């Protein structure tokens, strides 16, 4: 393969310049992929992706039964769920007697702290209002 009419540039041949350029591409790609892998690894450590991780601290939210009130797909028994934004998600880390608070028939409110991981709210505190 022949290069352009001026075969030298900065004292190097066209082929030598092209080879240097071709080495830069894989090195840049490896660095970019390494940075992406590092970010993904951090997200996996918490069990959530950065776009789904939300923390709440002493926030009032609507709560109810995940099966009876919110009809969350795959839920087959009465379990606590909270409405975070526009979506009802299951709540773990809290012991709330749903029937005692009427949450199998209707919604209530609770003061909650914790973090949202995917489709689950991992509660550190849940205080019924």
Low-confidence stretches: 34-51
Radius of gyration: 27 Å
Q: How many separate structural domains?
A: 2
Structural class: alpha+beta
Report the end-to-end length measured between terminal Cα atoms.
78 Å
Estimate the mean pLDDT confidence: 75
Largest sheet, in brief, is: 5 strands, mixed, barrel
Main sheet strand line-up: 3-4-5-7-6
What percent of the residues sit in helical stretches (DSSP H or I)? 25-40%
Shape category: elongated
Beta-strand portion reads 35-45%
H and E string: EEHEEEEE
Count of helical stretches? 1
- What is the number of E strands? 7
Structure description:
With 129 residues, the protein is an alpha+beta fold. The protein folds into two domains: 8-46; 54-128, no CATH class. The protein is built from one helix and seven strands; from the N terminus they run E-E-H-E-E-E-E-E. The chain has one helix at 14-46; strands spanning 8-9, 12-13, 54-65, 80-84, 87-92, 108-117, 120-128. A five-stranded mixed beta barrel has the order 3-4-5-7-6. Strands 1-2 form a two-stranded antiparallel ribbon. Strand 4 (80-84) and strand 5 form a beta hairpin. The protein is elongated and about 85 Å long. The termini are far apart.
